[in-house]
Write a structure and sequence with these properties.
This protein folds into two domains: 87 residues, 2-Layer Sandwich (Alpha-Beta Plaits), CATH 3.30.70.20; 340 residues, Aldolase class I (TIM Barrel). 30% of the residues lie in helices and 15% in strands. Helix 4 packs across helix 14, helix 8 packs across helix 10 and helix 11 crosses helix 14. The structure holds iron/sulfur cluster (SF4) (2 copies). One iron/sulfur cluster (SF4) binds next to loops. One of its GO terms (biological process) is glutamate biosynthetic process.
Length: 502
Protein backbone atom coordinates (compact mmCIF):
# COMPACT_ATOMS: atom_id res chain seq x y z
CA UNK A 1 0.00 0.00 0.00
CA UNK A 2 1.32 3.47 -0.91
CA UNK A 3 2.19 5.63 2.07
CA UNK A 4 0.11 8.76 2.55
CA UNK A 5 2.69 11.35 3.53
CA UNK A 6 0.08 13.88 4.66
CA UNK A 7 -1.26 13.94 8.17
CA UNK A 8 -4.98 14.71 8.76
CA UNK A 9 -5.56 18.43 9.11
CA UNK A 10 -8.15 18.04 11.86
CA UNK A 11 -8.81 15.80 14.84
CA UNK A 12 -12.34 14.57 15.49
CA UNK A 13 -12.76 14.48 19.27
CA UNK A 14 -15.71 12.42 20.53
CA UNK A 15 -16.55 12.52 24.25
CA UNK A 16 -17.38 8.89 25.11
CA UNK A 17 -19.33 10.06 28.18
CA UNK A 18 -21.69 12.03 25.96
CA UNK A 19 -21.87 9.96 22.75
CA UNK A 20 -25.03 7.80 22.66
CA UNK A 21 -24.14 6.20 19.29
CA UNK A 22 -27.31 7.63 17.71
CA UNK A 23 -25.41 7.77 14.35
CA UNK A 24 -26.64 11.28 13.52
CA UNK A 25 -23.07 12.32 12.65
CA UNK A 26 -22.74 9.36 10.30
CA UNK A 27 -25.88 10.39 8.41
CA UNK A 28 -24.93 14.09 8.34
CA UNK A 29 -21.36 13.79 7.07
CA UNK A 30 -21.23 13.50 3.27
CA UNK A 31 -17.48 12.99 3.59
CA UNK A 32 -18.04 9.67 5.40
CA UNK A 33 -15.86 10.50 8.38
CA UNK A 34 -18.05 8.79 10.99
CA UNK A 35 -19.04 5.12 11.10
CA UNK A 36 -20.55 2.73 13.61
CA UNK A 37 -18.52 -0.23 14.83
CA UNK A 38 -21.01 -3.03 15.54
CA UNK A 39 -18.43 -5.06 17.47
CA UNK A 40 -17.80 -2.41 20.10
CA UNK A 41 -21.17 -0.63 19.73
CA UNK A 42 -19.29 2.69 19.45
CA UNK A 43 -18.64 5.31 16.77
CA UNK A 44 -15.34 5.56 14.91
CA UNK A 45 -13.87 8.40 12.85
CA UNK A 46 -11.66 8.61 9.76
CA UNK A 47 -10.39 12.15 10.38
CA UNK A 48 -8.35 12.18 7.17
CA UNK A 49 -11.60 12.95 5.31
CA UNK A 50 -12.78 15.76 7.62
CA UNK A 51 -12.94 19.28 6.14
CA UNK A 52 -14.09 20.94 9.38
CA UNK A 53 -17.50 22.02 8.08
CA UNK A 54 -19.01 21.68 11.58
CA UNK A 55 -22.19 19.99 10.38
CA UNK A 56 -21.81 17.03 12.75
CA UNK A 57 -20.83 19.33 15.63
CA UNK A 58 -23.95 21.46 15.12
CA UNK A 59 -26.31 18.50 14.86
CA UNK A 60 -24.93 16.13 17.50
CA UNK A 61 -27.81 15.98 20.02
CA UNK A 62 -25.52 15.51 23.02
CA UNK A 63 -22.75 17.93 21.99
CA UNK A 64 -20.29 15.06 22.08
CA UNK A 65 -18.17 16.25 19.13
CA UNK A 66 -15.36 18.75 18.69
CA UNK A 67 -13.27 19.29 15.57
CA UNK A 68 -9.86 20.75 16.37
CA UNK A 69 -6.79 21.57 14.35
CA UNK A 70 -4.44 18.62 14.50
CA UNK A 71 -1.55 19.83 16.69
CA UNK A 72 0.80 17.39 14.97
CA UNK A 73 3.09 19.21 12.54
CA UNK A 74 5.94 18.41 10.23
CA UNK A 75 9.31 19.43 11.65
CA UNK A 76 9.10 23.21 12.19
CA UNK A 77 10.81 25.30 9.56
CA UNK A 78 10.66 29.07 9.26
CA UNK A 79 10.62 28.90 5.45
CA UNK A 80 8.78 25.68 4.52
CA UNK A 81 5.40 25.88 6.23
CA UNK A 82 3.04 22.97 6.92
CA UNK A 83 0.90 23.90 3.95
CA UNK A 84 3.81 24.19 1.51
CA UNK A 85 4.97 20.70 2.36
CA UNK A 86 1.57 19.04 2.30
CA UNK A 87 0.70 20.64 -1.06
CA UNK A 88 3.88 19.20 -2.55
CA UNK A 89 2.97 15.76 -1.19
CA UNK A 90 -0.48 16.07 -2.76
CA UNK A 91 0.88 17.10 -6.14
CA UNK A 92 3.58 14.42 -6.06
CA UNK A 93 0.83 11.89 -5.45
CA UNK A 94 -1.70 13.07 -8.04
CA UNK A 95 0.24 15.00 -10.68
CA UNK A 96 -2.66 17.46 -10.76
CA UNK A 97 -3.24 21.17 -10.25
CA UNK A 98 -4.43 22.08 -6.78
CA UNK A 99 -8.04 23.22 -6.68
CA UNK A 100 -9.67 25.37 -4.00
CA UNK A 101 -12.81 27.35 -3.44
CA UNK A 102 -14.06 30.50 -1.73
CA UNK A 103 -11.65 33.47 -1.57
CA UNK A 104 -7.93 34.10 -1.18
CA UNK A 105 -7.12 33.25 2.48
CA UNK A 106 -3.49 34.50 2.47
CA UNK A 107 -2.35 37.15 4.97
CA UNK A 108 -2.09 40.05 2.49
CA UNK A 109 -2.97 43.48 3.91
CA UNK A 110 -6.67 44.11 4.54
CA UNK A 111 -7.01 47.78 3.68
CA UNK A 112 -10.56 48.02 5.04
CA UNK A 113 -9.05 47.51 8.50
CA UNK A 114 -6.55 50.32 7.94
CA UNK A 115 -9.24 52.86 7.11
CA UNK A 116 -11.27 54.67 9.78
CA UNK A 117 -14.54 56.57 9.44
CA UNK A 118 -15.18 60.14 10.59
CA UNK A 119 -17.93 61.31 12.97
CA UNK A 120 -19.44 64.76 13.54
CA UNK A 121 -18.83 66.55 16.82
CA UNK A 122 -19.52 70.23 17.52
CA UNK A 123 -20.20 71.72 14.10
CA UNK A 124 -22.08 69.93 11.31
CA UNK A 125 -24.03 67.91 13.91
CA UNK A 126 -24.74 64.23 13.49
CA UNK A 127 -28.13 62.98 12.33
CA UNK A 128 -30.25 60.54 14.32
CA UNK A 129 -31.51 57.95 11.83
CA UNK A 130 -34.33 56.93 14.18
CA UNK A 131 -35.82 60.42 14.14
CA UNK A 132 -34.72 62.03 10.90
CA UNK A 133 -35.01 60.95 7.27
CA UNK A 134 -32.12 58.89 5.98
CA UNK A 135 -31.89 57.72 2.35
CA UNK A 136 -30.29 54.39 1.53
CA UNK A 137 -31.97 54.18 -1.88
CA UNK A 138 -29.66 54.51 -4.82
CA UNK A 139 -29.81 54.16 -8.60
CA UNK A 140 -27.25 52.41 -10.76
CA UNK A 141 -26.71 53.32 -14.38
CA UNK A 142 -25.42 56.03 -16.66
CA UNK A 143 -26.39 59.50 -15.41
CA UNK A 144 -27.36 62.25 -17.86
CA UNK A 145 -24.88 65.08 -18.40
CA UNK A 146 -27.62 67.65 -17.72
CA UNK A 147 -31.21 67.59 -16.50
CA UNK A 148 -33.73 67.89 -19.34
CA UNK A 149 -37.09 69.48 -18.56
CA UNK A 150 -40.55 69.38 -20.13
CA UNK A 151 -42.20 72.71 -21.14
CA UNK A 152 -44.01 72.71 -17.75
CA UNK A 153 -40.69 72.54 -15.90
CA UNK A 154 -41.02 68.92 -14.78
CA UNK A 155 -38.00 66.66 -15.26
CA UNK A 156 -38.05 64.54 -18.43
CA UNK A 157 -37.85 61.00 -17.13
CA UNK A 158 -38.27 59.27 -20.51
CA UNK A 159 -34.84 60.49 -21.63
CA UNK A 160 -33.08 58.84 -18.66
CA UNK A 161 -30.84 55.88 -19.48
CA UNK A 162 -32.14 52.66 -17.87
CA UNK A 163 -31.42 52.49 -14.13
CA UNK A 164 -31.45 49.82 -11.43
CA UNK A 165 -33.25 51.04 -8.33
CA UNK A 166 -31.84 49.67 -5.06
CA UNK A 167 -33.45 50.26 -1.66
CA UNK A 168 -30.11 49.45 -0.07
CA UNK A 169 -26.69 49.71 -1.79
CA UNK A 170 -26.05 45.97 -1.53
CA UNK A 171 -26.64 43.37 -4.26
CA UNK A 172 -26.05 39.62 -4.19
CA UNK A 173 -23.12 38.77 -6.41
CA UNK A 174 -23.03 36.23 -9.24
CA UNK A 175 -23.32 32.61 -8.16
CA UNK A 176 -24.42 30.14 -10.81
CA UNK A 177 -27.08 27.49 -10.49
CA UNK A 178 -24.83 24.47 -10.69
CA UNK A 179 -22.12 25.87 -8.47
CA UNK A 180 -24.75 26.51 -5.78
CA UNK A 181 -27.97 24.62 -5.20
CA UNK A 182 -31.54 25.29 -6.28
CA UNK A 183 -32.49 26.09 -2.67
CA UNK A 184 -29.59 28.53 -2.29
CA UNK A 185 -30.64 30.28 -5.50
CA UNK A 186 -34.24 30.45 -4.41
CA UNK A 187 -33.21 31.96 -1.06
CA UNK A 188 -31.18 34.67 -2.83
CA UNK A 189 -33.95 35.44 -5.35
CA UNK A 190 -36.66 35.77 -2.70
CA UNK A 191 -34.46 37.87 -0.43
CA UNK A 192 -33.56 40.21 -3.31
CA UNK A 193 -37.24 40.65 -4.13
CA UNK A 194 -38.21 41.39 -0.52
CA UNK A 195 -35.29 43.75 0.06
CA UNK A 196 -35.75 45.72 -3.17
CA UNK A 197 -32.36 44.73 -4.55
CA UNK A 198 -30.94 42.20 -7.02
CA UNK A 199 -29.34 38.78 -7.16
CA UNK A 200 -27.24 37.53 -10.07
CA UNK A 201 -27.57 34.28 -12.04
CA UNK A 202 -23.84 33.90 -12.61
CA UNK A 203 -22.99 32.04 -15.77
CA UNK A 204 -25.35 29.14 -15.19
CA UNK A 205 -28.51 30.38 -16.90
CA UNK A 206 -31.85 30.97 -15.19
CA UNK A 207 -33.88 28.02 -13.91
CA UNK A 208 -37.45 28.13 -15.28
CA UNK A 209 -38.87 28.42 -11.74
CA UNK A 210 -37.00 31.69 -11.15
CA UNK A 211 -38.28 33.73 -14.10
CA UNK A 212 -40.85 35.19 -11.73
CA UNK A 213 -38.02 36.93 -9.86
CA UNK A 214 -36.85 38.58 -13.13
CA UNK A 215 -37.40 42.20 -11.97
CA UNK A 216 -34.86 41.50 -9.19
CA UNK A 217 -32.48 39.42 -11.29
CA UNK A 218 -29.25 40.32 -13.06
CA UNK A 219 -28.63 37.82 -15.84
CA UNK A 220 -25.04 37.11 -16.74
CA UNK A 221 -23.50 36.56 -20.16
CA UNK A 222 -20.13 34.86 -19.69
CA UNK A 223 -17.62 33.36 -22.09
CA UNK A 224 -19.35 29.94 -22.16
CA UNK A 225 -22.73 31.60 -22.99
CA UNK A 226 -24.43 28.86 -20.95
CA UNK A 227 -28.20 29.24 -20.85
CA UNK A 228 -28.16 32.52 -22.80
CA UNK A 229 -31.16 33.05 -25.09
CA UNK A 230 -33.59 35.83 -25.86
CA UNK A 231 -36.11 35.05 -23.10
CA UNK A 232 -33.28 34.86 -20.58
CA UNK A 233 -32.00 38.30 -21.57
CA UNK A 234 -35.53 39.67 -21.49
CA UNK A 235 -36.19 38.17 -18.05
CA UNK A 236 -33.51 40.11 -16.19
CA UNK A 237 -33.57 43.68 -14.92
CA UNK A 238 -29.99 44.11 -16.12
CA UNK A 239 -27.47 42.10 -18.12
CA UNK A 240 -23.93 41.52 -16.87
CA UNK A 241 -21.10 40.65 -19.25
CA UNK A 242 -18.57 38.75 -17.20
CA UNK A 243 -15.06 39.38 -18.44
CA UNK A 244 -13.23 38.47 -15.26
CA UNK A 245 -13.68 37.22 -11.71
CA UNK A 246 -11.65 38.23 -8.66
CA UNK A 247 -11.02 34.70 -7.45
CA UNK A 248 -9.51 33.62 -10.76
CA UNK A 249 -8.55 36.57 -12.97
CA UNK A 250 -7.49 35.62 -16.46
CA UNK A 251 -8.85 32.11 -16.51
CA UNK A 252 -12.19 30.46 -17.31
CA UNK A 253 -14.47 28.27 -15.27
CA UNK A 254 -14.97 24.55 -14.89
CA UNK A 255 -18.05 22.87 -13.45
CA UNK A 256 -17.53 19.13 -13.32
CA UNK A 257 -19.97 16.75 -15.02
CA UNK A 258 -21.03 15.40 -11.62
CA UNK A 259 -22.77 18.71 -10.93
CA UNK A 260 -24.57 18.77 -14.31
CA UNK A 261 -27.81 17.16 -13.20
CA UNK A 262 -31.00 17.08 -15.32
CA UNK A 263 -32.15 20.51 -14.16
CA UNK A 264 -28.68 22.10 -14.41
CA UNK A 265 -28.24 20.65 -17.92
CA UNK A 266 -31.63 22.04 -19.01
CA UNK A 267 -30.86 25.46 -17.54
CA UNK A 268 -27.37 25.66 -19.03
CA UNK A 269 -28.46 24.08 -22.34
CA UNK A 270 -25.66 21.50 -22.29
CA UNK A 271 -25.79 17.68 -22.11
CA UNK A 272 -26.26 16.08 -18.71
CA UNK A 273 -23.07 14.84 -17.06
CA UNK A 274 -20.68 16.77 -19.35
CA UNK A 275 -18.14 19.16 -17.88
CA UNK A 276 -19.18 22.82 -18.31
CA UNK A 277 -16.00 24.61 -19.32
CA UNK A 278 -16.07 28.37 -19.85
CA UNK A 279 -13.16 29.59 -21.94
CA UNK A 280 -10.77 32.10 -20.39
CA UNK A 281 -11.54 34.86 -22.93
CA UNK A 282 -14.74 35.68 -24.78
CA UNK A 283 -13.77 34.46 -28.25
CA UNK A 284 -15.41 37.51 -29.83
CA UNK A 285 -13.76 40.14 -27.60
CA UNK A 286 -10.17 41.23 -28.19
CA UNK A 287 -10.57 45.00 -27.81
CA UNK A 288 -12.80 47.70 -26.31
CA UNK A 289 -14.41 48.01 -29.77
CA UNK A 290 -15.33 44.30 -29.66
CA UNK A 291 -16.71 44.77 -26.14
CA UNK A 292 -18.72 47.73 -27.41
CA UNK A 293 -20.25 45.50 -30.09
CA UNK A 294 -21.42 43.00 -27.48
CA UNK A 295 -22.72 45.77 -25.20
CA UNK A 296 -24.76 47.23 -28.07
CA UNK A 297 -25.90 43.80 -29.32
CA UNK A 298 -27.36 43.13 -25.87
CA UNK A 299 -28.92 46.60 -25.70
CA UNK A 300 -30.39 46.10 -29.18
CA UNK A 301 -31.73 42.66 -28.25
CA UNK A 302 -33.53 44.13 -25.23
CA UNK A 303 -34.65 47.40 -26.88
CA UNK A 304 -32.33 49.61 -24.82
CA UNK A 305 -34.46 48.98 -21.73
CA UNK A 306 -31.84 47.35 -19.52
CA UNK A 307 -28.55 48.61 -18.11
CA UNK A 308 -25.50 46.61 -19.17
CA UNK A 309 -22.94 45.76 -16.51
CA UNK A 310 -19.38 44.75 -17.39
CA UNK A 311 -17.68 42.76 -14.65
CA UNK A 312 -13.90 42.61 -14.45
CA UNK A 313 -11.36 41.30 -11.97
CA UNK A 314 -9.23 43.83 -10.09
CA UNK A 315 -5.82 43.56 -11.76
CA UNK A 316 -2.73 45.75 -12.11
CA UNK A 317 -3.93 48.26 -14.69
CA UNK A 318 -7.56 48.21 -13.63
CA UNK A 319 -8.04 51.99 -13.88
CA UNK A 320 -7.09 52.07 -17.58
CA UNK A 321 -9.28 49.03 -18.28
CA UNK A 322 -12.24 50.66 -16.52
CA UNK A 323 -11.70 53.84 -18.49
CA UNK A 324 -12.05 51.84 -21.71
CA UNK A 325 -15.17 50.07 -20.44
CA UNK A 326 -16.75 53.38 -19.43
CA UNK A 327 -16.39 54.43 -23.09
CA UNK A 328 -17.77 51.15 -24.45
CA UNK A 329 -21.39 52.04 -23.78
CA UNK A 330 -21.62 49.96 -20.58
CA UNK A 331 -23.84 51.49 -17.90
CA UNK A 332 -22.25 49.89 -14.83
CA UNK A 333 -18.79 48.46 -14.10
CA UNK A 334 -18.46 45.73 -11.48
CA UNK A 335 -14.93 45.28 -10.11
CA UNK A 336 -14.15 42.07 -8.26
CA UNK A 337 -11.19 42.06 -5.86
CA UNK A 338 -8.79 39.21 -5.11
CA UNK A 339 -10.67 38.14 -1.97
CA UNK A 340 -13.71 37.24 -4.08
CA UNK A 341 -15.11 33.74 -3.65
CA UNK A 342 -15.64 30.96 -6.15
CA UNK A 343 -16.98 27.44 -6.35
CA UNK A 344 -13.66 26.20 -7.77
CA UNK A 345 -10.37 27.79 -8.79
CA UNK A 346 -6.78 26.68 -9.19
CA UNK A 347 -5.25 27.39 -5.78
CA UNK A 348 -2.19 29.17 -7.18
CA UNK A 349 -4.38 31.56 -9.20
CA UNK A 350 -6.76 32.25 -6.32
CA UNK A 351 -3.94 33.00 -3.93
CA UNK A 352 -1.52 34.94 -6.15
CA UNK A 353 -3.35 36.78 -8.93
CA UNK A 354 -5.20 40.08 -8.74
CA UNK A 355 -5.11 43.04 -6.35
CA UNK A 356 -7.06 44.24 -3.29
CA UNK A 357 -10.44 45.77 -4.15
CA UNK A 358 -9.83 48.82 -1.93
CA UNK A 359 -6.88 49.98 -4.06
CA UNK A 360 -8.59 49.03 -7.33
CA UNK A 361 -11.75 50.97 -6.44
CA UNK A 362 -9.88 54.12 -5.39
CA UNK A 363 -7.75 54.02 -8.56
CA UNK A 364 -10.74 53.51 -10.88
CA UNK A 365 -12.92 56.18 -9.29
CA UNK A 366 -10.07 58.69 -9.42
CA UNK A 367 -9.22 57.91 -13.05
CA UNK A 368 -12.84 58.20 -14.21
CA UNK A 369 -13.17 61.53 -12.38
CA UNK A 370 -9.97 62.87 -13.90
CA UNK A 371 -11.20 61.90 -17.36
CA UNK A 372 -14.61 63.43 -16.58
CA UNK A 373 -16.43 60.22 -17.44
CA UNK A 374 -17.37 59.15 -13.90
CA UNK A 375 -21.08 59.77 -14.55
CA UNK A 376 -20.93 57.57 -17.68
CA UNK A 377 -21.04 54.55 -15.39
CA UNK A 378 -21.91 53.39 -11.90
CA UNK A 379 -19.39 51.32 -9.95
CA UNK A 380 -20.21 48.17 -8.04
CA UNK A 381 -17.39 46.63 -6.02
CA UNK A 382 -17.10 43.03 -4.91
CA UNK A 383 -14.62 40.62 -3.49
CA UNK A 384 -14.04 40.96 0.21
CA UNK A 385 -16.92 42.94 1.70
CA UNK A 386 -17.37 41.45 5.19
CA UNK A 387 -19.64 43.84 7.09
CA UNK A 388 -21.51 47.15 6.96
CA UNK A 389 -18.38 49.18 7.80
CA UNK A 390 -16.70 47.77 4.68
CA UNK A 391 -19.77 48.90 2.70
CA UNK A 392 -19.55 52.45 4.10
CA UNK A 393 -15.81 52.63 3.39
CA UNK A 394 -16.33 51.32 -0.16
CA UNK A 395 -18.98 53.95 -0.89
CA UNK A 396 -16.89 56.74 0.61
CA UNK A 397 -13.98 55.56 -1.56
CA UNK A 398 -16.16 55.93 -4.66
CA UNK A 399 -18.42 52.90 -5.12
CA UNK A 400 -22.12 53.30 -5.89
CA UNK A 401 -22.97 49.92 -4.38
CA UNK A 402 -21.39 46.62 -3.37
CA UNK A 403 -21.91 43.02 -4.33
CA UNK A 404 -21.81 40.45 -1.54
CA UNK A 405 -21.57 36.67 -1.96
CA UNK A 406 -19.50 35.07 0.81
CA UNK A 407 -21.43 36.91 3.57
CA UNK A 408 -24.68 35.77 1.92
CA UNK A 409 -23.51 32.15 1.91
CA UNK A 410 -22.36 32.41 5.52
CA UNK A 411 -25.82 33.77 6.41
CA UNK A 412 -27.27 30.65 4.75
CA UNK A 413 -25.09 28.43 6.96
CA UNK A 414 -21.80 28.13 5.04
CA UNK A 415 -18.97 27.41 7.49
CA UNK A 416 -16.17 28.37 5.07
CA UNK A 417 -14.74 24.87 4.95
CA UNK A 418 -13.66 25.91 1.44
CA UNK A 419 -14.29 22.59 -0.27
CA UNK A 420 -17.21 23.64 -2.48
CA UNK A 421 -15.40 22.18 -5.48
CA UNK A 422 -16.00 18.60 -4.32
CA UNK A 423 -19.77 19.06 -4.46
CA UNK A 424 -20.45 17.54 -1.04
CA UNK A 425 -21.44 20.68 0.84
CA UNK A 426 -22.97 19.40 4.06
CA UNK A 427 -24.98 22.61 4.43
CA UNK A 428 -26.89 22.16 1.14
CA UNK A 429 -25.35 25.24 -0.50
CA UNK A 430 -22.55 24.27 -2.93
CA UNK A 431 -23.97 20.93 -4.00
CA UNK A 432 -26.45 19.35 -6.38
CA UNK A 433 -26.93 16.13 -4.36
CA UNK A 434 -30.67 16.04 -3.61
CA UNK A 435 -30.21 14.65 -0.09
CA UNK A 436 -27.84 17.53 0.74
CA UNK A 437 -29.76 20.26 -1.13
CA UNK A 438 -32.87 19.66 0.98
CA UNK A 439 -30.90 20.50 4.13
CA UNK A 440 -31.15 24.17 3.17
CA UNK A 441 -34.71 25.34 3.67
CA UNK A 442 -35.30 28.35 1.37
CA UNK A 443 -38.16 29.56 3.60
CA UNK A 444 -35.62 30.01 6.38
CA UNK A 445 -32.73 30.93 4.06
CA UNK A 446 -34.35 33.97 2.51
CA UNK A 447 -35.33 35.33 5.92
CA UNK A 448 -31.77 34.97 7.18
CA UNK A 449 -30.53 36.88 4.12
CA UNK A 450 -33.12 39.58 4.70
CA UNK A 451 -32.09 39.83 8.35
CA UNK A 452 -28.44 40.17 7.39
CA UNK A 453 -28.98 42.93 4.82
CA UNK A 454 -31.52 44.75 7.03
CA UNK A 455 -29.07 44.68 9.95
CA UNK A 456 -26.35 46.11 7.70
CA UNK A 457 -28.76 48.76 6.43
CA UNK A 458 -29.43 49.92 10.01
CA UNK A 459 -25.72 50.01 10.75
CA UNK A 460 -25.00 51.94 7.54
CA UNK A 461 -27.62 54.51 8.55
CA UNK A 462 -26.03 54.81 12.02
CA UNK A 463 -22.60 55.40 10.52
CA UNK A 464 -23.93 57.87 7.96
CA UNK A 465 -25.83 59.71 10.67
CA UNK A 466 -22.66 59.85 12.76
CA UNK A 467 -20.91 61.53 9.85
CA UNK A 468 -23.75 64.02 9.46
CA UNK A 469 -24.66 62.54 6.08
CA UNK A 470 -28.23 61.59 5.23
CA UNK A 471 -27.96 59.88 1.86
CA UNK A 472 -25.84 57.36 0.01
CA UNK A 473 -25.46 59.89 -2.81
CA UNK A 474 -23.83 62.37 -0.43
CA UNK A 475 -21.46 59.74 0.93
CA UNK A 476 -20.32 58.40 -2.46
CA UNK A 477 -16.69 59.35 -3.12
CA UNK A 478 -16.59 61.49 0.05
CA UNK A 479 -13.04 60.50 0.95
CA UNK A 480 -12.72 63.33 3.44
CA UNK A 481 -14.77 61.07 5.70
CA UNK A 482 -11.95 58.50 5.74
CA UNK A 483 -8.52 58.41 7.39
CA UNK A 484 -5.76 55.81 7.12
CA UNK A 485 -3.81 54.12 9.92
CA UNK A 486 -0.54 52.27 9.41
CA UNK A 487 -0.40 53.02 5.68
CA UNK A 488 2.62 54.31 3.78
CA UNK A 489 2.62 57.44 1.61
CA UNK A 490 2.04 55.48 -1.60
CA UNK A 491 -0.92 53.58 -0.19
CA UNK A 492 -2.47 56.81 1.12
CA UNK A 493 -1.91 58.42 -2.28
CA UNK A 494 -3.63 55.58 -4.16
CA UNK A 495 -6.51 55.46 -1.68
CA UNK A 496 -6.76 59.25 -1.90
CA UNK A 497 -7.14 59.65 1.86
CA UNK A 498 -5.24 61.45 4.61
CA UNK A 499 -3.52 59.76 7.51
CA UNK A 500 -5.30 59.72 10.87
CA UNK A 501 -4.35 62.86 12.79
CA UNK A 502 -4.32 65.04 9.66
S1 LIG B 1 -16.51 16.91 7.38
FE1 LIG B 1 -17.98 18.11 8.59
S2 LIG B 1 -19.63 16.67 9.14
FE2 LIG B 1 -17.85 15.47 8.47
S3 LIG B 1 -16.71 15.02 10.37
FE3 LIG B 1 -15.81 16.86 9.52
S4 LIG B 1 -16.91 18.53 10.54
FE4 LIG B 1 -18.14 16.67 10.83
S1 LIG C 1 -20.53 26.57 0.60
FE1 LIG C 1 -20.48 24.59 1.66
S2 LIG C 1 -18.71 23.54 0.79
FE2 LIG C 1 -18.50 25.70 0.26
S3 LIG C 1 -17.27 26.60 1.91
FE3 LIG C 1 -19.39 26.86 2.48
S4 LIG C 1 -19.90 25.09 3.76
FE4 LIG C 1 -18.02 24.60 2.64
Amino acid sequence: MAINYNIPEYDVLRDPQRCIACRVCERQCANEVHSFDPDSGTMKSDESKCVNCHRCVALCPTHALKIVKNPDTFRLNAYWGQNDISEIYRQAETGGMLLSSMGNPKPYPIYWDKILINASQVTNPSIDPLREPMETRTFLGKKPGAIERNPDGSIKTDSLPPQLKLEVPILFSAMSYGSISYNAHQSLARAAQELGTYYNTGEGGLHEDFYKYGPNTIVQVASGRFGVHHDYLEAGAAIEIKIGQGAKPGIGGHLTGAKITDAVSRTRMIPKGTDAISPAPHHDIYSIEDLRQLVYSLKEATEYKKPIIVKIAAVHNVAAIASGIARSGADIIAIDGFRGGTGAAPTRIRDNVGIPIELALAAVDERLRQEQIRSNVSLIVAGGIRNSADVVKAIALGADAVYIATPALIALGCHLCRTCQIGKCNWGIATQRPDLVKRLNPDIGYKRLMNLVSAWQHEIMEMMGGMGINSIEAMRGNRLMLRGVGLNEKELEILGIKHAGE
